[in-house]
Amino acid sequence: MTQTVHEFDQYTDVRAALADPALVPPPPAEDGPAGASVAWLRASVARFSSGEAHRRRRSLVEAELARLDPAALRNPAPDDGDLRVRVVRTLAEALGLPEPAAVAAAVPVVAGAYFGHQDPAADAAVAELVALLGPDPKDEAAMEAAAGRIGLLVQACDATAALVEAAAGGDAPPARVLRDEPPVRTTRRVATAATRIGGRPIAEGDAVLLRLAADRDNPVPLVFGAPPRVCPGRAHALALADGLLGRALTPFARLHHQATPLLLPNAWDHASAAALAAQGFPAVGTTSLGVAAAAGLPDGAAATAAATLELARVLGRGPLLFTVDAEGGFSDEPAEVAELARRLHEAGAAGINLEDGRADGTLAPARLHAAKITAVKAAVPELFVNARTDTHWLGLRQEETAARLAVYEQAGADGVFVPGLSDPEGIAELTASLLVPLNILYSPAGPGLAELAELGVRRVSLGSLLYRTALAAAVDTATAVRDGRPVGLAAPSYAQVQEFQAPGASG
Ligand code: HEM
């Protein structure tokens, strides 16, 4: 009897199918000698397991990847002519595995047979890898951990090499190439029980083919799959690709690819930026509300282009790493936004924030915002573009947020920002499908830094919170003196504030 195959290519259906516990990866067909066959490997790794075994094996992989220093992945192993070998060797070295050169030679042989071809050479390569990793064959847990390590290298090998090959011809960032030429276009599942996807009934034993690539109807590609089995190596794949392509990160971009998220406090003038830098913050942002309010102007109404540029010029006099909140770019002409970005960069800015929210409470069309991002990246590729969507603030559905972020990412954004989003599930859903770092606005009522880090957030900004706090402190101090209350605040001294002058300032 032939098996019924159901195909899905719409984002909502594919995502629902990937999350459905009744749909599992096709289990390995045969058994093979433990520690010496691809069949044993497939029967022992997260990729082909389900239920409790999947959870246990996936945590092993995640723990292994958590040990990795992302910076190490950007330093590729020497080029011996074979890209797949180089990918695996870089990863094996970063993981501190024994004899990385021998490991790297064996893994591509296993990768060729991982999805089901019989190959005695691949069985021999598994045996060699197990011998190199050296688990005690009688210790089941150690054998499972060794299989997990091999599985991780095998998963990384072909897909990452394909990405590097596709990106090598041009200068598009790997995150964008992934969308255009996804290395993994489909994935399969079988139904262990009757279920329903997108209203279509699926009988027990039926097969399901899921298309992960984006198309015109599906703006949110799932090139790395989706929870609970989303690729745990997606950040690693992009770091490996950057390294192998010789794409260096700017110092500011690097702060978004560390083990802990970048906490970015927002300043409104030189003294507030310098005071924050003096406390060891590696970078600061500006707050458009603070800049506008200080100048007696409205925020978000494209009224502060001159004040914003002026602040960038002052901040740019020193060594401070800073990024500028430039509302929607103060124009709906992408060429004008690109010109502003060029001037900000010339002034010393390392990044720019561009938002799609408008003063009248509507959103700029996603295509227009994407055109601004592309124009800025074309004019100043080194400037880190953080593309902000105000969907959440406007109460739009999470799907609209995900769709807009995918479009902005595709347009070349280096990071994306969803102010107002604070529910852990919504954040986790976005970080699972995003390729670029997600920025969240800290909310005193929302998750703390540690939880945001756990959820995969890479940058946490404070927005206008510090400016508003400073206003509150000023007013509270004045009213305390007037009303005879004690003055609570330990303010910096006159001399300390004098030290926050911009270099080269003349009196
Ligand atoms: C561009 C490169 C890569 C692409 C496109 C990619 C894509 C994917 C996809 C689509 C899945 C899910 C498959 C499914 O659910 O059916 C997956 C799973 C997996 N990937 Fe990646 N991957 C890449 C690189 C890597 C790297 C570098 C690593 C390790 C460092 C890795 C480790 C894994 C593992 C262990 C799984 C299985 C997870 C599980 O079943 O829970 N991948 N990958």
Automatic annotation (TrEMBL):
- Name its species: Allonocardiopsis opalescens
GO function term, MF aspect, one: monooxygenase activity
Which Pfam families has this protein been placed in?
A: PEP_mutase
* Keyword terms, alphabetized: Lyase
- Listed SUPFAM superfamilies: Cytochrome P450 (SSF48264), Phosphoenolpyruvate/pyruvate domain (SSF51621)
Superkingdom assignment: Bacteria
**Could you identify this protein by its name?**
2-methylisocitrate lyase-like PEP mutase family enzyme
